[in-house]
Design brief:
The complex is a heterodimer of chains A (304) and B (386).
Chain A lengths: L1 E12 L2 E12 L3 E5 L6 H8 L7 E6 L8 H5 L2 E4 L11 H9 L8 H7 L15 H14 L4 E5 L7 H16 L3 E6 L2 H7 L2 E6 L2 E6 L1 H8 L3 E5 L2 H4 L12 E4 L4 E5 L2 H14 L7 E5 L2 H9 L6
Helix pairs in contact in A: 3-5, 4-5, 8-11
Chain B lengths: L1 H16 L1 H26 L10 E7 L4 H12 L3 E5 L2 H9 L5 E5 L6 H11 L3 E7 L6 H17 L5 E6 L15 E2 L7 H30 L2 H6 L5 H31 L7 H23 L5 H18 L11 H7 L3 H14 L7 H22 L4
Parallel strand pairs in B: 1-2, 1-3, 4-5
Antiparallel strand pairs in B: 3-4, 5-6
Helix pairs in contact in B: 1-9, 2-7, 2-9, 3-6, 7-9, 7-10, 7-11, 7-13, 9-10, 10-13, 10-14, 13-14
Classes of the chains: A alpha/beta (304), B alpha/beta (386).
Bound molecules: adenosine-5'-diphosphate and magnesium ion.
The site of magnesium ion has 5 residues of chain A, from helix 1.
Chain lengths: 304, 386
C-alpha cells in the first residue's frame, strides 16, 4: 500500500528550481530515505509533503490526502521532526514531550519514548542544558510521540557523533517494527545504506536514482573499487594505462580504480609499483557504495 | 483543548522561569510608579501640601458680581493658594516681570453665566477665561481647572460653557507670544499624580505589548513556530494562547501600577474596575498588535529588540506622558498628535483618574481601535511563521 505519492513536484524560489519534477512513492511500513548533498531540495520536498509548504505544481498525496488542501488532516496522522528546529528552552524534556503529546489524539506514552531515545536520566532537565546530541534526540522523540502512521525525519542524525547516530538508527528501526512508515532525509551515505529499505538519490531537485541500496549499487557497479592513497603512486599517469581497469577517478586524497577483475588489477599494479621502485603498501579494496553511485551519476561527491 | 491548555502552561513556564525577564516584568512598573510618584507628590502637587507651601495667585475680578465673587471665594479657600485681588494692569505687569506665577482673569461677561448659560449652549458659544501661568508652575493648572469645572457643575449642572484660555507668556506689544498658541485646557484634578500615573500605566502597557512580541519573534527564529505548525495544533489556537498571556500580563501590570499609585501616592480612582479594565484591554490590544507588526520587519531577535527600542523611545518622549502638552513647543504638539501612546495615556487619564479627556474620549477610542485594526490586518497579511 502506498502512503506517500509524489508526482512531478516542482517548487521554485525566484529563478532557482529547488525541486524540479520530482516523483516518488513510499510504501507502508518501509524506511524510505532521500539522500543528497546540501541544497539538493530534500527539505523542500519534505516540507511540501508534511503540509508546511505550498508547491508550484505537481501532485502530492499523503495517506490519500493532499497536504496542501487539507493540511490539518495530514498533520493529525503524522509525526514530524524538522531540520534545525529548536524547542522551548525553559521546559524540561518531560514537559516538552507532554506538551507535544497534548496536540495528538492518540499519542504514545511519554515515558516509553523517553527510554527509547535514551533520555531517561535527563527527563527532568531543561532543554537549554542538553547537549546538541540530546536535543537532536528530543526532536526525534517529538516526532515519535505523535504515534503517527508516518514519521517524517529531516536529517535526524546531523550533529550526532557516530555512536549516538547508531543508537538513533536503532530507535528508527524500532519504529519500523511497530509498523510505522519512516520518511527521512540524510546526507550521510552510510545512513541511507544501513538504515533505509529504499533510497532516492537527489541532486538539483531531481531524482538521479531510486531503489534499495543494494539494487542501486549492483545496477551501477559490477566492479570493485581499489583506492590508492600513496601520493607518489596515485598521480602516476601509467595508472590510466592498466588494461584490467575500466575507470580511474582521481580524488583529492586518493585515486579510485574500478575493476571487474581484482586479481588482474592487483597483479598489474604491483608490476607498475616495481617498475617505479615504489613499495605498494597503502591501498584499500572495497565494494562500491551509494557514494560511488552518486559520484558516478553526478560526477561529484555528496560531502563537500 | 488539552493541547491549548498545555501550550498555555508551557508558555507561562517559559516566561516565569526566565528570572531576568520575570524580574523586570514586576520591577519595571513598580520602579516607575515609585520614582514618578515620589517626584511628583513631594514637589509637584499643591494638594499634597501641609500648609507650609503657599502659591500666590492673582485674581482680576472684572465682573464684580455674585458669581465671580463665589469663584474667588473658592480660590481663597484652597489652603495652598494665597489669593491677591489685583487690577488687570497690575497683575499682568507682575506676571510679565516674573513676580506673579499665576494670574486668573474673571471677565465681566462671566457674571451673566448663571442666567445666560442656556443661550450660550444653544448658540454653542463659550466664555473665555484668560489664565496666565508660568511654565514652571504648570501643575497649578490642574487645581485651577478643577475649581472652574466644579463651580460650573454646581451652578449649571453638566454642560461646559467656560473655556480656560491658557497663556504661558505675557503678550508683548508686538502681539507675538513666545509660545505661539493659546491652548485650551480642560483637565481637572488638583493632583499631578493623576496626570503622571495613568501615563506611566500607558507606557508599561506599550512596553509590554512591544517587547512581549519579541518572544514570538524568538520562537520564529528558533523554528519553534514552524515545528508547532507541523503538529495538528490549529494556528488560531496558538494565537489565542499568546493573546491570553499578553492580556493576563497587562492586567497584572496595570493592577500593580494602579494599586501602588492609589495607596501610596493618592492616585484618584474615578471609575469602576470594569471600565478601567476595558481601557487597559484596548491599550493592550493596540500595542500587542503593533509589536507583532514590527516583528515582520525583523530577521533576528537583536534587530527586533532594536526596532522595539526605537519605537518605544520615540513614543515615550513624544507622547507627552511625562509632561503636560502645554509645556511642549508647538511643532512637538503636532508630532504628539500622531503618536498612538498619546491617546492611550489620555484615555487612561480619563478612565482611571477621571480627568476630562484632552482629545475627546471618542477620539481616543477611535485612534486605539484604528491602530489595533491596522496593525492586526498588516500582521495577518504579512506574518511569517518561519
Ligand atoms: N525560503 C527559501 N528561499 C530561497 N531559497 C530557498 C529557500 N529554502 C530553500 N531554498 C533553496 O532551495 C534549495 C533547496 O533547499 P533545501 O530543500 O533546503 O535543500 P536540502 O534540504 O536538500 O539541503 C537550496 O538551494 C536552498 O538554498
Ligand atoms: Mg535540508
Amino acid at each position: 500500500m502506498t502512503v506517500i505519492e509524489v508526482k512531478n513536484l516542482t517548487k521554485k524560489y525566484g529563478n532557482l528550481k529547488a525541486v524540479d519534477g520530482l516523483s516518488l512513492s513510499v510504501a507502508k511500513g518501509e524506511i524510505f530515505g532521500m539522500l543528497g548533498p546540501n541544497g539538493a531540495g530534500k527539505s523542500t520536498t519534505f516540507e511540501i509533503t508534511t503540509g508546511l509548504l505550498h508547491r508550484d505544481s505537481g501532485n502530492v498525496k499523503v495517506l490519500g490526502v493532499d497536504p496542501q488542501k487539507r493540511p490539518e488532516a495530514v498533520k493529525a496522522r503524522i509525526g514530524v521532526q524538522l531540520q534545525a528546529a529548536q524547542t522551548f528552552r525553559k521546559l524540561t524534556v518531560m514537559e516538552t514531550l507532554k506538551l507535544f503529546a497534548g496536540f495528538y489524539l492518540n499519542p504514545l506514552p511519554v515515558n516509553e519514548i523517553i527510554t527509547q531515545v535514551d533520555l531517561a536520566e535527563k527527563q527532568h532537565s531543561r532543554v537549554e542544558t542538553l547537549s546538541g546530541g540530546q536535543k537532536q534526540r528530543l526532536s526525534v522523540a517529538i516526532a515519535m510521540i505523535s504515534n503517527g502512521e508516518i514519521i517524517f525525519l529531516d536529517e535526524p542524525t546531523t550533529g550526532l557523533d557516530p555512536q549516538a547516530r547508531r543508537d538513533l538508527w536503532g530507535s528508527i528501526i524500532e519504529l519500523k517494527n511497530l509498523g510505522k512508515t519512516v520518511f527521512l532525509t540524510t546526507h550521510f551515505m552510510e545512513e541511507a545504506q544501513k538504515l533505509c529499505d529504499r533510497v532516492a538519490i537527489i541532486d538539483y531537485g531531481r531524482i538521479v536514482a531510486l531503489g534499495s541500496p543494494q539494487e542501486l549499487i549492483t545496477a551501477h557497479f559490477h566492479e570493485m573499487s581499489l583506492e590508492i592513497v600513496q601520493p607518489e603512486l596515485r598521480n602516476e599517469p601509467k595508472l590510466w594505462e592498466l588494461t584490467s581497469v575500466t575507470e580511474v577517478i582521481a580524488l583529492n586524497e586518493h585515486t579510485v580504480l574500478r575493476t571487474p577483475n581484482l586479481t588482474a588489477t592487483i597483479r598489474e599494479l604491483s608490476a607498475l609499483a616495481k617498475a617505479l621502485t615504489i613499495n605498494l603498501d597503502d591501498f584499500r579494496i572495497r565494494q562500491a557504495n551509494l557514494e560511488d553511485v552518486f559520484l558516478k551519476l553526478t560526477g561529484r561527491r555528496i560531502k563537500p | 483543548m488539552k493541547g491549548f491548555f498545555q501550550l498555555l502552561m508551557a508558555n507561562m513556564k517559559e516566561i516565569f522561569r526566565d528570572r531576568m525577564q520575570f524580574g523586570w516584568f514586576i520591577l519595571f512598573p513598580v520602579l516607575f510608579v515609585a520614582g514618578f510618584g515620589v517626584v511628583f507628590s513631594s514637589s509637584g502637587s499643591p494638594a499634597a501640601g501641609d500648609g507650609t507651601m503657599k502659591f500666590p495667585v492673582s485674581i482680576v475680578n472684572e465682573g464684580e458680581g455674585a458669581f465671580t465673587a463665589a469663584i474667588t471665594e473658592v480660590f481663597m479657600n484652597v489652603p495652598e493658594f494665597s489669593v491677591h485681588m489685583k487690577t488687570k494692569d497690575e497683575a499682568l505687569h507682575e506676571f510679565a516681570g516674573g513676580e506673579a506665577g499665576l494670574v486668573i482673569i474673571l471677565p465681566a461677561g462671566l457674571e451673566v453665566l448663571p442666567v445666560a448659560a442656556g443661550d450660550l449652549i444653544k448658540e454653542d458659544r463659550k466664555i473665555e477665561i484668560p489664565v496666565y501661568c508660568r511654565p514652571d508652575q504648570m501643575y497649578l493648572m490642574y487645581g485651577v481647572n478643577k475649581i472652574f469645572h466644579e463651580a460650573e457643575k454646581k451652578v449649571l449642572g453638566q454642560p461646559s460653557v467656560m473655556e480656560i484660555k491658557l497663556n504661558t507668556a505675557f503678550p508683548h506689544d508686538d502681539g507675538l507670544e513666545n509660545n505661539g498658541d493659546n491652548k485650551t485646557s480642560n483637565n481637572a484634578g488638583l493632583n499631578m499624580i493623576d496626570y503622571i500615573l495613568p501615563g506611566i500605566l500607558a507606557m508599561t502597557l506599550m512596553q509590554l505589548g512591544l517587547f512581549g512580541s519579541i518572544r514570538v519573534l524568538a520562537l520564529r527564529v528558533a523554528k519553534i513556530l514552524k515545528l508547532l505548525g507541523a503538529t495538528p495544533l490549529p494556528r488560531g489556537m496558538f494565537l489565542a494562547c499568546e493573546i491570553l498571556i499578553r492580556v493576563g500580563m497587562s492586567f497584572i501590570q496595570a493592577l500593580v501600577v494602579i494599586i501602588i499609585g492609589h495607596y501610596a501616592f493618592g492616585l484618584t480612582l474615578a471609575n469602576n474596575w470594569l471600565y478601567i479594565a476595558g481601557w487597559v484591554l484596548l491599550g493592550t490590544a493596540a500595542f500587542v498588535a503593533m509589536g507583532y507588526m514590527f516583528t515582520i520587519f525583523a530577521k533576528t531577535v537583536e534587530s527586533g529588540n532594536a526596532i522595539m527600542q526605537l519605537a518605544q523611545l520615540m513614543m515615550m518622549f513624544l507622547s507627552g506622558i511625562f509632561m503636560p502638552f502645554d509645556l511642549l513647543p508647538g511643532y512637538l504638539k503636532t508630532v504628539m498628535r500622531f503618536i498612538p501612546l498619546t491617546y492611550l495615556a489620555d484615555g487612561l487619564r480619563h478612565a482611571v483618574a477621571g480627568n476630562p479627556s484632552l482629545y475627546g474620549v471618542t477620539t481616543d477610542l477611535a485612534v486605539l481601535l484604528g491602530v489595533t485594526a491596522f496593525c492586526l490586518i498588516t500582521t495577518v497579511k504579512r506574518f511569517k511563521w518561519e
